[in-house]
What does this fold into?
Amino acid sequence: MEIDHEVIQKVLAGDYDAFEVLVDRYKGRVYRHLRKMVKDQSEIQDLLQETFLRAYKGLGSFAGNSSFATWLFKVANNTALMYLRKKRPELLQHADDIQKMEEFEFMPASSEFVGTPMEILLSQEGRRKIEEALDDLPLAYRTVIVLKDIEGFSLDEVAEITDSSVPAVKSRLHRGRNFVRATLSSYYTEKSTVKKHRG
Amino acid sequence: MKEQCREFCKKLSDYLDGQLDENICTLLEKHLEECPPCGLMYESLKTAVELCRKGLNDDIPEEMSRELKAFLRTHCKGS
It folds into this structure.
């Protein structure tokens, strides 16, 4: 497989088919990122198209200081944020809701959650609960979890994509992960209690 | 929760990411072994991170992928 840098040189030399190689390589990952920023499928589609169009037009400005993936995700992130500022500003007003997040930080862990087998945690219902827990997170926290834990970017890369400092990314990761942990723990504890009562 | 436990719990996320100095790692690991509630806290945080990674890896719908390529061909090719 050709490395991104070689493919980019071909695109810059006028080879459009080479751009489709990059689209195929990254469309799934960018889709997953955008899907966690906006909910509606047609909004996701518009933002996905806008992201790759901007990437194509701006490829000449890609200096190679970061990986292409980091640069592309930054384009996607900024495209989605611009859209949200215009159309859904309420989602950004509570983007960094520290007060809401602090109460989950030290919520005790549950043995029911840790003791639940992975195949149940990853069943259809389990996946829905993970999805709901992430959706309840303020946007700034959800974004760093998606970029770090799902897409596998480094802390430095997440900071670059989100225009934040590394300490800010670490702090959001810590609080966001604890929110997901506490939400899932409560769900599995409650589920286990109901099961016991039914006997 | 004891103050010492709170301080260790604040470091769990950095520990998962390999961001702690070796001497702090050693102290933390010793504490996790000796303190069951903190040990459970670490296990549940690790599980939550693993679930996000494994549970949310859905792919782009085929139709959206086709429309993306058609859109880009129209707007980029020959521009």
